[in-house]
Specification:
Blueprint (H helix, E strand, L loop, with lengths): L86 H4 L12 H6 L11 H5 L16 H12 L17 H12 L14 H4 L1 H7 L1 H14 L5 H9 L5 H28 L7 H14 L9 H15 L6 H16 L40 H21 L7 H16 L9 H21 L11 H14 L13 H8 L8 H15 L3 H17 L8 H7 L8
Helix pairs in contact: 5-8, 7-8, 8-10, 8-11, 10-11, 11-12, 11-13, 14-15, 14-16, 15-16, 16-17, 16-18, 17-18, 18-19, 19-20
Pfam families: Fungal_trans_2 (PF11951), Zn_clus (PF00172)
Protein name: Zn(2)-C6 fungal-type domain-containing protein
Keywords: Nucleus
């Protein structure tokens, strides 16, 4: 007989109550008050009929006081392959949600794969991913309070003052750059080292705000934003547009005039005698040059030239290099004004006595910035203008002949002086060729003055035809980027007024076009418009073609041909 007993199973034993199939069939009430019984397992070597149960005394149930709880009865049957889950294990475990998804997925309440820069979830659904919020660092309450305190502290509004008077914005810097690297080089035939527009005007403008405003206004009016240069200039400065530049241009013009008027009033009252006088002349110079940009010139340049003549008599500047520069500049433009100006109802700016001759002093080449003033050539232009005004008056009054013997004698003296005149620059210099061109211009101007056309004879004279052809040859010899181009417009205009042959006109048109490309001023276009009208009258054999000053004023064009 074999007695088989079974040990009590532990809670971790696969024979636990939760792991049997028969668990659901047992009634827990049937176990109350019973001791756990042993299970007899079959044995292959034991015969079941021979097995007997040993009988013993019945034990009393032990007291449950101060004793460990009884082990639960081992259920019957085989264990479950997949144990039944307890209610505790079936409860869903809460998992914290991250807030690092993209803005779009968070709005749509969709799971985000958090791919950068845009999540694949948005891409697969053809949705524009709005990206991710900026990561914030957690800070304690004390740190946040300190940041709030710092934000509440008001800092002073610090603004750095302008380093150079008037140059305050990006547009001002563009005007300043244009003046230094482009504009200041086209007004004179001097070299880069002796350029008075840089070496004299700029240092003075740093100390005088009115002159700086005048320089910036001059520079702003010179730029043509429709030209190739202007388009490239704007591309190089994309942060500024044309509207902003035009506003700054008007601002500088307004401030320059205010400063100029204030300085003139102080000069008259004697508050600051001669302290700001050089800067005042510099501002007048800029105002004269500004008129070259006017598409509809009405003679405003003459107002500034007259103001200069009045101021220089009342407050003559001190002798020096700047005084020589200012005198030469204004006298050049005063004499060149005679090519277009009419003497009616006004006093001539460059009226010259017929007995005034050339100065005897020898002029050094380095002392000449513009042709005609220091070397005395424009003296002949003023004398020729005297004869021209007399002939015009005789034509208007019907006096025949219009050119009297006094005018012919004066013309003979002028012709002799022109033949003797020589440029001050050495032979081969482009400025020497410019001097020869001006000499040719003077002779053509004299011949055209004392030979007004008549209806009875319209055949071009061989002398004037040859003189114009020689002048055209000199015109075509200049390089398009030669600094002497700043002197070419006046002789080209005078030669054009004597170009009776149609073949002579195209080279003159081309020469004026080259001047326009170099100077980029609109007075070149105005001069060509007047010439086209003169040529039209020539072809019609109209006597009015002689008086191009009256033609220009009849067209409403009173400009400087410089």
């Amino acid at each position: 007989m074999t007695t088989i007993t079974s040990a009590a199973s532990s809670c971790t034993d696969p024979w636990s109550s939760s792991g049997f199939v028969e668990d659901q069939e047992l009634d827990s009430g049937d176990l109350d008050g019973h001791m756990p019984t042993m299970k007899l397992e079959p044995d292959d070597d034991v015969k079941m009929p021979d097995i007997r149960i040993r009988e013993g005394p019945v034990r009393e149930a032990p007291s449950t006081i101060n004793q460990t709880p009884l082990v639960a009865k081992r259920p019957r049957g085989r264990p479950r392959k997949y144990p039944k889950l307890s209610p505790e294990s079936m409860a869903k475990v809460g998992k914290g949600r991250s807030k690092t998804g993209c803005i779009t997925c968070r709005k749509r309440k969709k799971k985000c794969d958090e791919r950068k820069p845009g999540c694949m979830n948005c891409e697969k659904n053809a949705i524009d991913c709005e990206g991710y919020r900026e990561k914030t660092i957690w800070k304690s309450g004390k740190e946040r309070a300190e940041e709030a305190r710092l934000r509440s502290v008001s800092l002073p509004n610090i603004k750095l003052p302008a380093m150079i008077n008037g140059v305050e914005t990006a547009g001002d810097m563009m005007f300043f750059e244009h003046y230094i690297f482009r504009l200041s080089s086209i007004f004179t035939v001097e070299g880069e080292q002796n350029n008075a527009f840089k070496c004299m005007l700029l240092p003075m403008a740093v100390q005088h705000p009115g002159l700086m405003h005048s320089i910036l206004a001059l520079s702003s009016k010179h730029i043509d934003y429709r030209s190739s240069y202007g388009i490239k200039f704007l591309k190089d400065h994309p942060e500024v547009d044309i509207e902003t530049l035009e506003r700054r241009s008007l601002f500088h013009q307004h401030e320059a005039l205010n400063e100029l008027n204030a300085d003139i009033e102080r000069q008259k009252k004697g508050d600051k005698p001669n302290v700001t006088l050089p800067a005042t002349f510099g501002q007048m110079l800029c105002l004269v040059l500004e008129t070259l940009s006017d598409p509809n010139p009405k003679g405003l340049h003459r107002v500034h030239l007259e103001a200069y003549q009045s101021l220089v008599k009342e407050c003559p500047p001190e002798d020096g290099e700047f005084q020589k520069f200012i005198h030469e500049f204004f006298q050049y433009h005063i004499c060149a004004d005679e090519l277009i100006a009419l003497p009616a109802d006004r006093v001539r700016l460059s009226a010259t006595c017929d007995d005034w001759n050339l100065p005897t002093t020898i002029v050094q080449p380095d002392a000449v910035r513009l042709l005609g003033v220091s070397d005395g050539l424009f003296l002949y232009m003023s004398k020729i203008t005297n004869i021209r005004n007399e002939v015009r008056e005789n034509l208007q009054n019907g006096i025949d002949p219009p050119v009297g013997y006094n005018a012919l004698y004066a013309a003979a003296l002028i012709d002799a002086g022109i033949r003797e005149w020589k440029p001050v620059w050495p032979a081969g210099d482009s400025r020497d060729r410019a001097g020869l061109l001006y000499k040719q211009m003077m002779w053509v101007y004299l011949w055209r003055t004392i030979h007004p056309p008549r209806c009875s004879s319209w055949e071009p004279n061989a002398k004037i035809t040859e003189a114009v052809n020689d002048g055209i040859k000199i015109l075509s010899s200049f390089d398009p980027r030669d600094p002497s181009q700043t002197l070419i417009l006046a002789p080209a205009f005078v030669l054009g007024c004597a170009a009776f042959e149609p073949a002579q006109r195209e080279p003159i048109r081309k020469a004026i076009g080259v001047v326009k490309a170099y100077m980029e001023y609109r007075n070149s276009d105005t001069a060509l418009e007047v010439l086209e009208e003169v040529w039209r009258l020539m072809d019609a054999k109209d006597e009015r073609s002689w008086d191009w000053q009256t033609i220009a004023h009849g067209m409403g064009m009173d400009f400087l041909a410089t």
